[in-house]
Amino acid sequence: MKNIWYVAKKEIKTYFTSPIAYVVIAVFLVLVGFFFYSAIWWFNSQSIQMAQNPYYYQQANINQMVYAPLFHNMSIILLLMIPLLTMRLFSEEKKIGTDELLYTSPINVGQIILGKYLAALVVLAAMLILTGVLSVFTFAYGNPELPQILNGYLGLFLMGAAFIGVGIFFSSLTENQIVSAILTFGALLLFWILNWASHSASGMWKSVLDYLSFFQHFDDLTRGILDTSDLVYYLSFAFFGLFLTHSVLQSRRWR
Amino acid sequence: MIEVEHLTKKYGDLVAVRDLSFKVEKGMIWGLLGPNAAGKTTTMRILTGYLPATEGKATVCGFDVFEQPNEVKRIIGYLPETLPLYPEMTVSDYLDFVAAIKKVPAATRKSALDQAVETSGLEKVRKRLIKNISRGYKQRVGIAQALIHNPDVLILDEPTIGLDPAQIIEIRQLIKSLKGERTIILSTHILAEVTQTCDGAVIINEGKLMASGSLEEISASIRKKEGVTIRLRRAGDEAATVLREIPGVEKVSRQDGEFAVEWSQGKDLREAIAKLAVEKDWGLLEMRPVAMNIEDLYLRVVSGGIEP
Predict the structure, then answer these.
(1) Which chain A residue shows the shortest CA-CA distance from B69?
(2) Angle of helix B165-177 versus helix B135-147 axis, rounded to 10
(3) Residue B307: pLDDT above 60?
């Protein structure tokens, strides 16, 4: 357990002494801020129109009209940003030769992987927590439902955790960071759009494709539905990524 | 202390190390000597548990490298050929991290760090980022990380490569000062490194063992013939004929006013030669052994002119 923490601590330090974490977090916040602003602006103009009609006015819901689309936008930005966070995790160690230090130390590969995974999760959490500032405004001037918002954040975190699992796996495959980032991005996008293919599929294939798609599971979470099958999906995705990483690193050393 | 038995490592069809066996006693500095691509780094990587061997066995302090890797990793300090440094970390942060993953207890980590910094002469740069320090200091940080958990065994892969002559001398002195309780193996392709720092050597080429043992043992084992070169004040060509008549002498040659006398291994004719020179009143000025030395051997190994 301690070993995992040592590796994680070192990775977190590296994230924050190099510009990577700052740039990724800053760009993420700017984009999220922009989407938030446009969603609020749209919500405002809709509210004014709806105010004409008491029936529609009842329907105006800041969670559905601001947060749900915002979470969707954030998940897309995460899809673009996570590969940049994970690309160096193993690629760089291999490239600069520090993997030799790690593998000749009395800690095992699993601990190294978990340490790095934990560090990336910390940066992800920092990204998401910092966007919480935006909710200060919605709570000050409106009455959104907190549980639903937290549910959305939980969804984003779990999805990010699954993304990081995939990213770490591709990082362990190559010593080239760009290649690692592109492969991660490609794989994530593919899983994202799997449900497009499901429209033309039928029967079992349709449900398999739907189940595998990131999008399908995330939709529930943004609407405030907490379904264990979604949790299991994301966690098993992350676990599978880490498991493959472990196999790759072990086999590489036995070749 | 360190025992390697019939070690073989194959990368696909390429055999990097074949049937290598050697032994290093406790408290010695041993050089792993060979030209580039001789299998030095592979051997060291196997000893440190970075790579598994294809066949054979290696033990360090009684622990099997393959069966008990974590025990071995605890007692080995390793400086890889490519320095395993994180450019974005400061020297002290880096050493602290290494101490942590090498299982130095938290309570003694601070003093272990101070000790390693002092031994390796890093006081001036300990707060600086590794990417900003000079090559010589980087090498020292590499040695400091190998030392930080006070290991019984140090394995240094090309510790002086890429340094200027003054730095090479400093690092060699540093390595010598680390001896004592520790057993050290260092690899190099430079013979002078071995003759100046090491007690013994393992000479390999193309993955095969050429010679191993203490420097004297190696020199002795490679001498098929022994002999002396003598310098005489008063002697003509007839001296060669007279020398040849000493029982056991196989060859006498004259070069630049000196006579080289050779005989087969195991005998010692120096006394007889000296006696004869006095009897004949040749005026013996100098007598020195001309056995083939380790340098000749190494040159022949490198140029591929010798079989084990």
Answers:
(1) A106
(2) 10
(3) no
